[in-house]
Structures are given as C-alpha cells and as structure tokens.
C-alpha cells in the first residue's frame, strides 16, 4: 500500500471510534490491569511484538517497537489510567458507557486521554499491519499511572522507572495529552508538593487565646507564603519567552477563566491548599494543624529555589515543613526548533491546512520526566483541556479521526 493510500485509509476509517469506545468502557480509575491487558492483546492481534513491564506483580506498562536501534525512536506515549468519575448522578450519561451523541463521545477519560490512546494504538497498528518500511524506529508506550503515580523500585512513577532502567529509550516523544488539534504544547511547569504543620497548646475552647491556635497560626502562615511567592517572578528562558507571553489568551480559553484572573500564572509560582486537617472537637483549642499544599514551578525557576523561599517564610511563622516524597519536578520545555515539533507542525498543516500554535501549559505531565532523560517531548492530542477531570467529559469524533491522520503523518515525516 502506498503511503498516501495508507493516510487516505486512516482518514476514512471508523475503526478508531470503535477502539476508543472499547477503551472507554473499561473502568481504569484505580485498577489498570484490565485496560493494560486490552492494549497488550490488541497489539498482539495486529502482529506487533509486545513487552510488558511489571512493577509490583499487578501494575505493568506495555511497550512495542518497530525496527532496531531504539535510541533513535519516535515514541508514541499514552497513559491508560483516569481520575475518578465522582458522583455519577451528575453525569448526563453513565461515565463508562461511552455514549455517542452527535459528534461527541461522553465518558470518563475521553479527552484525558483514552481518545488519544486509541488514535496512537490505531496508527501503530497501521504501521505494523502494512509492514511500512521506516528509516527510524517507532515505539509505542502505554503506562498505567500518569494521573496517580505508583511506587516503583526507582521511586514514584512508572515512566521514570522505565526510563531509568533503560526499558524505554528514544530520540523524541509525542504524548497524546489533551491540547486540541490547533495547538502543540512544548513546555510545562514543575511540581513542588509539601506539608505544612503548626502546633499550639490545647485548652478549653471557652477561654481561647485566638492567636495561639494551631489552625489560626497555620492559616495566617499560608497567607504569608502566598504573598511571598507572588512577589517573585521567574526569568523565562529567552527561547520561549515570546511563546509564554503570547499565550495567556489560549490558557484563558482552555480553563474558561478570564485573562484578568490568571495573573502571571506562567511566570510566577502558583499555590493550591488541597487538604487541611486540624483539631479534635469544636470546644477544644486544637493542638495541631496541617495543610497539604501543591505549588507549580514556573519555567526559569527550580523547585529548590521555591522550597528555599517557602521554608524561610514558614520558619518565620513557627510552621514546620515536610517535602512530600517524590512529588517534586523542575519545569521543562522542548525547543520550538526541535525535530519532533517541526514534524508535528508539518503534519497538522498537511491535515488541517493551518499552522498550529505552540504553547506552554500551566499543568504538569510525564513530559517533564521524559525531558529529564534527554528526550525531546511535546504533547498533542484530540482532547479538550476545558472538559478533562469534569462531569460529562467528552471527545469529538471528528477530532479523533483527524488525530489519526496527524499522528500518522508526523510519524512518516520523522521516520521515512
């Protein structure tokens, strides 16, 4: 089959929609063995050589590669786990029925990122089934734990374990994380997660010293930490400074938040107080209060720099700090001039007749992990950021089909 005919067949096929719905019907919130076995069996059914990499006897990654010399491979990456669906009564359709209404498939994980998983699986199967001759290898990697990392022999996260042990190597990587078809993400912030703790002397609640209350002290310290991080601004790398500055409008569109409320989200640290615990009874002054706080680290700053700032403020306010194990990463980006970016841009232009915008996201993903091992990585997927982790998550059928053609063209642009 000629390459153009292969692309044409991919464009017309409804198989990717069928595959996506099969993946979406598998609940992979906390148990991923079933969906990982589905991926493994699908690859074997099309004649691919498959390897499984078990972390703890039940959690495992699935990999496959065409060709030799994997260090030059283009990696197609996906994760199969999803966040919890929450209160199912708040869904218009059951979250694991993969209901199709018009152009949309409704299901947990539709945009993040089982739609892209289906597209990448389908593209990889086309290469294998049609015995396409490539000058460079192509790898497929499906990990079970991007949403909620699991413990491995090398720390937290299966991707890190695969890379650190040499089970996955490559030159560049396309991740199917949700970006929408008109944008390519080339960078992201880092993570810095901590626990802040405060102590006080317990006493009867009828005669409290308001300031000598562990909860009050901690809340006030949190405000001071927030003020401190908002007083600093990172030195954005010159190579992507213009990209960062131009894309507040894009982030506003993705998050459905007015630009005026975003502040300098890509250039300053941000802070989320996710969990607070303190006190035993309403009529006792609490002896202890703690908060789990997640910070995002902007490009141009390291998590250790942020840690030094937060630690200084905490110590000045009688608050102790614990860094949560293996929940830190530095921000990273791939050069806008990197080969993988150029090949993916060309594929989008060939398919959609538009030039995709490059951007840096406010979130984090396994892309930081891959870049830490010298692999140029960007993410591009048919999912929409505005609906991920939300009730009634969906993916466009048309976008799903288009992504197949774009992934296939990107692979051929790189590997022919």
UniProtKB/TrEMBL annotation:
Residues 186-317 form the Peptidase M20 dimerisation domain. Gene3D superfamilies: 3.30.70.360, Zn peptidases (3.40.630.10). The keyword Transit peptide does not apply. Pfam families: M20_dimer, Peptidase_M20. Its cofactor is Co(2+); Zn(2+). Keywords: Cobalt, Hydrolase, Metal-binding, Zinc. Belongs to the peptidase M20A family. PANTHER family: ACETYLORNITHINE DEACETYLASE. This is Peptidase M20 dimerisation domain-containing protein.
């Amino acid at each position: 089959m000629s390459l153009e005919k292969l692309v044409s067949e991919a464009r017309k096929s409804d198989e990717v929609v069928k595959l996506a719905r099969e993946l979406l019907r598998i609940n992979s919130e906390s148990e991923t063995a079933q969906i990982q076995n589905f991926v493994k069996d699908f690859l074997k059914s099309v004649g691919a050589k498959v390897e499984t990499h078990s972390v703890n006897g039940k959690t495992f990654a699935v990999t496959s590669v065409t060709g030799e010399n994997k260090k030059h491979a283009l990696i197609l990456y996906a994760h199969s786990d999803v966040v919890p669906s929450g209160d199912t009564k708040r869904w218009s359709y059951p979250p694991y029925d993969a209901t199709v209404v018009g152009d949309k498939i409704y299901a947990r994980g539709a945009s993040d990122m089982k739609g892209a998983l289906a597209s990448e699986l389908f593209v990889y199967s086309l290469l294998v089934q049609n015995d396409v001759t490539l000058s460079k290898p192509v790898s497929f990697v499906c990990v079970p734990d991007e949403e909620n990392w699991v413990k491995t022999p090398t720390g937290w996260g299966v991707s890190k374990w695969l890379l650190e042990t040499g089970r996955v190597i490559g030159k560049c990587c396309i991740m199917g994380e949700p970006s929408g078809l008109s944008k390519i993400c080339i960078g992201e912030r880092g993570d810095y997660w901590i626990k802040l703790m405060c102590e006080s002397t317990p006493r009867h609640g009828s005669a409290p010293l308001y300031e000598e209350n562990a909860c009050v002290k901690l809340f006030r310290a949190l405000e001071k930490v927030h003020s401190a991080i908002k007083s600093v601004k990172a030195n954005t790398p010159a190579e992507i400074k213009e990209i960062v500055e131009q894309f507040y409008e894009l982030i506003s569109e993705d998050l459905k938040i007015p630009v005026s409320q975003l502040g300098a989200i890509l250039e300053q640290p941000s802070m989320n107080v996710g969990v607070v615990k303190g006190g035993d009874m309403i009529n006792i002054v609490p002896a202890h209060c703690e908060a789990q706080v997640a910070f995002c680290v902007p490009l141009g700053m390291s998590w250790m720099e942020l840690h030094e700032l937060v630690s200084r403020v905490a110590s000045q306010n009688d608050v102790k700090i614990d860094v949560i194990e293996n929940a830190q990463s530095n921000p990273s980006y791939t050069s806008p001039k990197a080969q993988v970016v150029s090949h993916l841009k060309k594929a989008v232009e060939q398919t959609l007749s538009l030039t995709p915008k490059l951007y840096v996201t406010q979130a984090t993903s396994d892309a930081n992990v891959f870049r830490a091992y010298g692999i140029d990585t960007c993410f591009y997927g048919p999912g929409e950021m505005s609906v991920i982790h939300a009730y009634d998550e969906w993916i466009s059928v048309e976008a799903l089909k288009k992504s197949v053609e774009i992934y296939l063209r990107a692979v051929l642009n790189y590997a022919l």
